[in-house]
Amino acid sequence: MNNLLIRMKLVENSQPSHKATKVHLLIIAFAAIIGFTITACISPVDNGDGDDGEKLPTASGVNAVSGKTYYRFAWLGHVTFSTTASGAKNGTYVGRAVDTGTYVPYEKFRYIDTETGTYTWNEEARTVTLKPERVAANNHGYASGGSVNYYIEIEYGQLKDKTGYRSDVQAWFNSYIADIGEAAFNQELSYTGFSSLAAYLDDHVNYTFANKTHAYSFSNDGTALFLEKKLPANKGSNEFSGQTYYGLAWDYYQDKYVKDTDQVYVFTATGYTFTGSYYGIIKGSYAYDSTIKNIWLGISTIDGKDRSAYYAEQTAFSGHNYADDNAFRAAQTNGAFEYERKPYSSANKTIGWGY
User: Fold this and answer.
1) Which long-range contacts does 302-310 make (Cβ < 8 Å, 24+ apart)?
2) How confident is the model at residue 294 (pLDDT cuts 50, 70, 90)?
3) Helix or strand or coil: residue 244?
4) Helix 182-190 and helix 197-208: axis angle, to 10°?
5) Using CA atoms, how far apart are residues 73 and 102, in angstroms rounded to an integer?
6) Residue 139: its pLDDT value, please?
7) CA–CA separation, 330 and 315 (whole Å)
8) What is the pLDDT of residues 37-58, one digit of tens each?
9) How many CA atoms lie within 13 A of 222 on its CB side?
10) DSSP track, 130-171
């Protein structure tokens, strides 16, 4: 598993190299494949709203996402929202990832369920809030490919509630620690921004099983659903406002990640501009946790285009593996605009998974 490779997006600086650790890759895999919704296990006394006390907001107005599918990039799959009747208090959703296999041109992706839950909507605010009830842990995987010809080998556990999910993740880590030793594991864990495995597990499981609110919108032709995940609340001090940070790139001569001055983040008090991307000039908003040195980067425009304008310019490649051309275009757009969570160094003024 030391040669695991998880590509979250077609962006050079978001791809872990062959030098990345298992801990590093597992966290990336969780963020990429799980990081969509979130809740807790169902108890017989909480009306199915979870055991963490966090309730879904009351549904309001017309459910615009009823029966719609949100497509994510390639093996990240899609999320399908149930059709709701007039007056319904909530709906259900299913998150699916692409199943293991080699996909040749024109062969359609096969999917497996990786998350189930409930959702509510707010027509006036144009938001939808999701609350998973069961999630399948992603223990390891390999995915590669371009517009067609994907090879995917990703192992998922069974769909579990919050308690069972945490147990599955803990068991994987216990096995890995036994393989490499506690000292080596702690060294790897230090690269993630967390001081202990318990701290990481608390953060990860709570994040996975907490409500997630998304702003929704549609393409101008009505064929694509776009979701913009709400950034988390800031924690600690803002170490970005008025600052310039840089991405990281692998230097084969030095055999390590180094600051890449071609990847430039310029921050204001609430927003940022990034140049050096595969996609173009990116602008958006951000959130931070200065205790664990993590930043969340939301995307509002790419080369001046919002999601709808970006989608309108997409062209489906012949032989792609999606259900139809519109699904392909939606997946490309949502993949390009999906926000990222990354560690940062305020001392080195760098952002990224390198170490």
Assistant:
1) 302/277, 302/336, 302/337, 303/279, 307/217, 307/219, 307/226, 307/228, 307/333, 307/334, 307/337, 308/217, 308/218, 308/219, 308/220, 308/226, 310/336, 310/337
2) very high
3) strand
4) 50
5) 16
6) 65
7) 10
8) 322 222 222 223 334 558 999 9
9) 1
10) EEEEEEEEEEEEEEE-SSS-EEEEEEEEEEE-HHHHHHHHHH
Concatenating the DSSP letter of every residue in 180-218 gives H-HHHHHHHHHTTT-SSHHHHHHHHHHHHTS-EEEEEEE
Q: Spell out where the chain has E strands.
A: 69-71, 78-81, 91-98, 101-103, 111-122, 127-144, 150-160, 212-218, 225-229, 244-251, 256-267, 271-275, 282-289, 294-297, 301-302, 340-345, 350-351
How many CB atoms are located within 10 Å of the residue 220 CB? 10
Quote the percentage of the chain above a pLDDT of 90: 65
| pLDDT of amino acid 28 | 44
pLDDT at 37: 31
Most confident of 30-34, 111-115, 351-355: 111-115
Structure tokens at 215: 């702003």
Any alpha helices (H) in 260-299, and if so which ranges? none
**How many other CB atoms sit within 10 Å of the CB of residue 176?**
19
326-344 per-position pLDDT tens digit: 999 999 999 999 988 999 9
Q: Are 71 and 96 in contact (CB under 8 A)?
A: no
DSSP 32: I
Query: Based on the number of CB atoms within 10 Å of its own CB, is 315 exposed (0-12), middle (13-18) or buried (19 or more)?
Result: exposed
pLDDT band of residue 1 (cuts 50, 70, 90) is very low
CA atoms of 321 and 114, how far apart (whole Å): 20
